[in-house]
Design goal:
The protein is an alpha/beta fold and 260 residues long. The protein has two domains: 7-148 and 214-259, Vaccinia Virus protein VP39 (Rossmann fold); 159-213, Single Sheet (S-adenosyl-L-methionine-dependent methyltransferases). 26% of the residues lie in helices and 35% in strands. The protein has helices at 9-15, 20-37, 54-61, 73-82, 122-135, 218-228; strands at 44-48, 65-70, 89-93, 106-111, 136-147, 159-168, 171-180, 190-199, 204-213, 231-238, 252-259. The strands form two sheets. The protein has a seven-stranded mixed β-sheet, sandwiched between helices. A four-stranded antiparallel β-sheet has the order 6-7-8-9. Strand 1 (44-48), helix 3 and strand 2 form a beta-alpha-beta unit.
């Protein structure tokens, strides 16, 4: 058993039901958000928990300078390999909870792929925000992509809630996800156990991940920004739209923070 499904950059996004076209849609909406809220043209972007930085690769091909940060050596290596030939994208292996990088300040930062709620401790979230703030110019924007979490019900006992299979390139992937109970006083809303079986032509690999989720809604993110003291929350958008009301959000929402 290997450590994580995240050691397989070409597979993990499909496991999380991401589709290739979604990345392009997200980048297009990012540009609209920047146009609406950024005080200056966005020319330098920090991509947090970037993985192989598919968003950053699109932005870099469009002329924006991008720096990606991720804790996974496998993901960083994949990003460097996939962006070979682009001289305006760089990667650093860093923990997202607290980091420093030898870069001048950025116009904007992004945290995509609905990963932000895996930071569950108050101290970790605040140190993360402080680290991001240190990289941004005043007035710089931080856009955070967050899943709508009310579908994750608090579990009274360990329970299977997803069992499906898919084909990704030359691999057949079976995904089994369990929800597990958490203490009522925990900062974690829920936790799911993600078990995958990857059948390649020459081998079978099994992975297992424990993924915590902190229930995060716009007022919570606003409070975190205020507690950090270096951001203000200026907007929240549902489902990549300026027109959809938050109460009509179907899947995910974006919080927009401004560096004060």
């Amino acid at each position: 058993m290997v450590a994580s499904i995240y050691e397989f950059p070409d597979i993990f996004r499909r496991v999380h039901k991401e589709q290739p076209y979604e990345i392009g849609e997200e980048v297009r909406f990012l540009r609209k958000v920047w146009k609406r809220h950024a005080p200056r043209p966005v020319r330098r972007v920090l991509d947090l928990a970037c993985g192989n930085s598919p968003h950053g690769q699109i932005l870099a091909r469009g002329g924006i300078e991008v720096v990606g940060i991720d804790r996974s050596a496998t993901m960083v290596a994949a990003g460097r390999r996939e962006s070979h030939g682009l001289d305006n994208i760089r990667f650093y292996r860093r923990p997202i909870e607290r980091f420093k990088i030898p870069e001048r300040r950025f116009d904007a930062a992004i945290f995509m792929s609905e990963t932000f709620p895996v930071m569950t401790a108050n101290d970790a979230i605040l140190s993360h925000l402080e680290s991001v703030a240190a990289t941004l110019r005043r007035g710089g924007l931080y856009v955070i992509d967050i899943d709508r979490h009310d579908g994750f019900r608090v579990a009274a006992a360990r329970k299977l809630w997803r069992d499906r299979s898919m084909r990704v390139a030359d691999a057949t992937v079976r995904v089994r996800a369990h929800s597990s109970p958490m203490p009522w006083h925990s900062g974690i809303h829920s936790i799911f156990e993600l078990e995958c079986e990857l059948e390649f032509p020459d081998r079978t690999v099994r992975t297992r991940d424990l993924v915590p989720v902190r229930y995060t809604i716009p007022p919570t993110l606003d409070l975190l920004a205020r507690a950090c003291g270096k951001f203000e929350m200026i907007a929240a958008y549902a489902d990549l739209s300026f027109a959809v009301a938050m109460e009509n959000c179907e899947r995910r929402w974006w919080g927009v923070l401004r560096r004060t």
